[in-house]
Amino acid sequence: MQNEGIKPNQFTLSSVLKCCSSLSELKIGKGVHGWILRNGFVFDVILENALFYFYVKCEDFGSAKWLFESMEDKNSVTWNIMIGAYLDTGNVDKAVDLFRRQGLKDVSVWNTIINGLMRNGFERIALKLLYEMVKDGTLFNEVTFSIALVLVSLLKDLELGKRIHGRVLLSGIHVDGFLRNSLIDMYCKCGEMKMALKVFEKMDIDIDVFSITSIVSACASFGVLELGRQVHGLVQKIGHKLDAHLGSSLIDMYAKCGNLDDAKRIFKQTNYMNVVLWTSMVYSYALHGRGREAVQLFEFSMSRGLLPNEVTFIGVLTACSHAGLVEEGCRYFRLMKEVYGIKPGVEHFTRMVDLYGRAGRFKEIKKFIDENGIHHLRAVWRSFLSSCRLHRDIEMAEWVSENLLRCQTLDARPYVLLSNIYAIKQRWEEVETVRRLMQSRGVKKHPCQSWIQIRNQVHAFIMDDRSHPQKNEICAYLYKLIGRLREIGYSSDAKLVMQDVEKKQGEGEMLLGFHSEKLATAYGIISTASQTPIRIMKNLRIYDDCHNFMKYTSQLLDKEIIVRDIHRFHHFKHGCCSCGDYW
Fold first, then answer.
1. Domain that holds residue 20
2. For an engineered disulfide with 301, which of 60, 294, 306, 346 has Cβ 3.0 to 4.6 Å away?
């Protein structure tokens, strides 16, 4: 362009900088910056934002911060870039402080900070800012409503979700497919399946594939198999082609609802060499602890010339982690970077820490964190702390907790994990110290919840739950079942009750009988035929005692029990679990 004597303008330079940002070409971008300065270009806000965004995307935060502070004209795009940069690097406090510094805020800035806080695990702070946005008088747009609905889904606050739905209707905003899909997803994740179906049925007659995949994905997230089957039936009835996109959604749904056989059946029916489709099947095997099969499928796909993407590697690293395939996982991580040129993200780093951690290779974790410069990633430290719990290593757990709590003080999970480790070792004074620290910092633990779908109705339980209409029948059966299990060798481990350390040991043992997954299991047994498998979903990791309980129950009753916890599926059959007690 310059050889032709044509002088670039601000728009040309902005486009070049955008390309440098996309390709992370720091050296070339700096050269463009130097050319701009040498040729006396007058910066307008568009060009300054393009340069600012380039430095942020290339992770040259020193230059980015200097440029931000030196900019005289800042618009909403400028503030969004800087706030987003702080959020992406885990500097939540700085992001919020910067947001507070800004004067007049438009809707896009509100959306950025609320969405960023939510993505970083600060749902309550995000909700507080959402309320502030209302008080500020800033009108919601379609993006705001979608973010708010995702936030509601994470908080499981159905009443708030209904109010936001009402606000959508009153706002006069066009409820497009994306926003309607967000409503469906919110109702599904809050357990209001009937309302989700109503929203789905009110959609236009010509339901597009994205709407179908949205409700299928919602069924997958909540683990409601029967509703998922109904939607699948609708797909067949209206004659939608089972393409790669829809096929991968159905595979994911059946796998996450505990039906791996139907997931495999859909995979065979599609018969496409498509990376999204094959990735879904790899991840499905991983989720169910079938690590060897996941690796075999991954290797076969590469031999057929299919190029894996970053999500594919998340799936195969998960498979290696769950199956204890440490060397294979390390090889795939190197392959991802060195052969396919894929830059590792948070999920990849977390899977690698989990891979080392499950194998008890803590020295490798420390080295891995140092080599990759990922000390700021909370998910990495949480995974490390979970491994400390698995191996009951208190000294390492205390060190990891210190690092984790430096970058995250309001999330209950680190405190609970550390408390659990102390409780396993019966160090009750330290347990109480952790609890007092949580109280002083205003940290609240999310209650453990389990749910089961019986005859198209979702039944949810929490610990010591007495709210179910059949509570007397459920509790009576559970008492009887535990008595029979003890006769064949089961014993409750009262050390594993961490919810209320003030209670006496005997009361702790009694509380073990009322863990949410045990209540859901008891209800499933009395509500289904003897040979019908029970599928239970759980929002946290399954307790060690409950895992033991499920094994003995499957042996005593000759009944398959399938439990999905926050990490994976556990298939209990004939007294054994598919995880091989490695979870």
1. 10-73
2. 306
